[in-house]
Q: What sequence folds into this?
DNA sequence: CAGACACCAGCACGGTCGTGCTAATGTCGG
DNA sequence: CCGACATTAGCACGACCGTGCTGGTGTCTG
């Protein structure tokens, strides 16, 4: 039972790479099939619908994000060190991909903000979970630093803004100074909150 | 020669509205034709290609942005008042649209960041122009406030981050507190820079 | 008022889309 | 080694895509 799972995994991997460039709706079964050297119907047999494939791809992206960004940061000691790590790994996630394609969640959030359905629902759920992680990590840093009246939700908002514009300047405008500006902005944010 | 221009304008308007929801590639000539009560070929005759239509739509969006956001702000006296107006009009542009669809440039930047061609080129050009406006307005406010060593580019980066995440939380997460957070973040940004 | 021309509908084209059905191939446990 | 079953190819389908051509209908100009 391993042959089938293997090819299914390679399909999802390739679909994820393509989705980073053309979006999840833009991934085509025909094109995807030739990419993984399968017939269109052979590929389709692994998923009962295109939507199921899209959900599998999204799930794969969430898994990668969890193990690349979240988990390593949470393994660090609570406090500003963990917070800094979370930010830096988020920056790397957006800019360091060997395949040059950026953060897929940011692309998908624009693609699905007006497209109801299970894909959008799952995307919203994962975004909220990520916000929760940021909030808790920041809250921990604030407590360790002895800061009172810390507005965690506001911190999350500004944290994400830095990341979103990083993707914007890095991918659309091709500004090489993006990372530098992102780090500087985050330093401002930390200083402003005393953490 | 006014009948033709009128219908052409109504086509572009409708296409712009649809593009806000499904992107420029997602706008379909057939669907667009029925929306404006024209035959597909009748509509197509106004543009020699779909790409020409896309460029016309983008140009229309740029015009609206200029007259809704940029021009009114630039008519105000130089300084922090003008800067604040620019930000608030940007926030309104993202959230206040009667058609509930958000800022199309943010959607397009994700759609075309990996799709070379004239549409992407024009989009990049207009983004750079907007950044120039922010930079000059902020620089003016800094000079009026007597601030030295003002990092205008960094200010632009953080300004845009606030707007991008506003679109994100407003449209995807449907967070009603988005505007409030955006304004608070901008107040932080101004305070940090002393303007 | 008539001729020139802009405007638009009808129809057709090759392609590709997602999705099914059927049959041949492969893989694995007994 | 063989039978059960998972995996994949071939083929077909209706729908829609962007794009042309051709002819008719309106509209403005002289």
A:
């Amino acid at each position: 039972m391993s042959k089938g799972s293997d090819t299914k995994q390679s399909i999802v991997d390739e679909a994820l790479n393509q989705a980073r460039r053309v979006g999840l709706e833009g991934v085509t079964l025909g094109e995807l099939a030739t990419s993984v050297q399968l017939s269109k119907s052979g590929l389709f047999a692994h998923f009962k619908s295109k939507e199921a494939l899209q959900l599998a791809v999204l799930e794969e992206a969430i898994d990668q994000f969890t193990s690349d960004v979240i988990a390593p940061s949470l393994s660090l000691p609570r406090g500003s060190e963990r917070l800094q790590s979370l930010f830096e790994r988020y920056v790397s996630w957006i800019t360091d991909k060997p395949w040059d394609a950026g953060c897929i969640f940011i692309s998908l959030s624009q693609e699905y903000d007006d497209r109801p359905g299970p894909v959008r629902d799952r995307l919203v759920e994962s975004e909220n979970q990520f916000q929760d992680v940021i909030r808790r990590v920041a809250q921990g840093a604030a407590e360790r630093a002895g800061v009172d009246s810390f507005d965690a939700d506001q911190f999350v908002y500004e944290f994400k803004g830095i990341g979103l514009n990083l993707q914007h300047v890095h991918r659309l405008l091709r500004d090489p100074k993006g990372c530098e500006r992102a780090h500087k902005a985050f330093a401002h944010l930390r200083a402003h909150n005393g953490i």
In short: DSSP finds nine helices and no strands in chain B.
